Please model this.
Amino acid sequence: MDKAIITCALTGVLTNPKQHPVPVTPEQMAAEARDAFNAGATVMHVHLRRQEAGMGHLPSWEPDVAESVVIAIRAACPGVVINLTTGVIGKDVSGPLACLRRVKPEVAACNAGSLNYLKIKDDGTWAWPPMVFDNPVEKVKQFLDVMNELGIHPEFECFDVGIVRSVGMYLKAGMFSGVPEVNFVMGVASGMPCDADLLALLPRFAPPGAVWQTTLIGRAEIWPVHQKTADLGGMLRTGLEDTFYLPGGERAPGNGALIQALARCARNAGRDVASPAETRALLGLLPAA
Model:
């Protein structure tokens, strides 16, 4: 596609704000979003953090927090598209669903399949206890049913090739409609590696007519794959959720610098960065109110 949608993943799940420059409060989220928006990001992927003092490294599923963060971002970035996370471990999805109902984002991330979520150290010990990021079909359907009810566009996050293929089955089963959007998540140690050769194969396994993007997790090694994404016509995403490092290996001071580097990848491929209105058209969203 000629136009490149750029998404900024503002803060992530568990990163400690005492160690890394991730935003936590609505004011911080809005300021980071504004920097990213000014650099070309038209979609903000939003995770929510606990607001109590000393608890900002933990996720929140409080609708009041969701509302205050989204209101602040929308005020700072006219026309921006909100993409709200729904990722949660376990069967209880009441928190994410309550947040969706409260803020009614234009887009919501939908983790499309389960993954053994692993990382191992050089000495052979686990970086954390082995865990399953559980997203069985019945759980995916719970999210999609509410997204369908509220008119929210699902963005399917896919950590492995079989999960990419599952999205086409969800479409065939009538679990969602509209423009399919598939996000190839690469760089999780037990998922798809961040590899340009693998990326070149993946779009053929997405549903016909899908918009696809990449989420690339890592350090400086992710940037050639971002460029490959741009060259192949994919949509682009980065932010402090995914990396702390710019293409030269230096640490990013914030989301704005990361998005500036990502926009250069689009322009290096001869593509213009999509405006908010163009983003909505490509994803089949309603115009901004």
The radius of gyration is 17 Å. The chain has a mean pLDDT of 97.
